[in-house]
Design goal:
Distance between the termini: 37 Å
Largest sheet: 7 strands, mixed
Shape: globular
Oligomer: single chain
Radius of gyration: 13 Å
Helix content: under 10%
Number of strands: 11
Low-confidence stretches: none
Length: 122
């Protein structure tokens, strides 16, 4: 499966953005999906994960109650709605997919999109 992330941009603190992750090559309902981010000089970190059916969702503590992960299997697309953005959310955001049900670490994911830059100004 190939993944294409989009929707990043420049936003003021407190604003919102919605990232999209368009999948091609295979039906996305076969995969668990996740979002990760990497800030300059830092390691890539987990942001959110969603099960194949969309019923189970997991979030990093730093984004819980502000970000919402979702998916539309009919459109072969995943989403990350980001509200109440903070300057510390500035990073390149990556969507990822995997077939194994367990594990949220970066190394657990098999397929990665190219990343989309989110910049939050104070």
């Amino acid at each position: 499966v190939q993944l294409q992330a989009s929707g990043g941009g420049l936003v003021q603190a407190g604003g919102s953005l919605r990232l999209s992750c368009a999948a091609s090559g295979r039906a996305i309902n076969m995969y668990y999906m996740g979002w990760f981010r990497q800030a300059p000089g830092k390691e890539r970190e987990f942001v959110a994960h969603i099960a194949r059916s969309g019923t189970a969702k997991y979030y990093a503590e730093s984004v819980k109650d502000r970000f919402t992960i979702s998916r539309d299997n009919a459109k072969n697309t995943g989403y990350l709605q980001m509200n109440a953005l903070k300057p510390e959310d500035t990073a390149v955001y990556y969507c990822a997919a995997k077939m194994a049900p367990r594990g949220l670490a970066t190394t657990e994911y098999d397929y990665w999109g190219q990343g989309t830059l989110v910049t939050v100004s104070s």
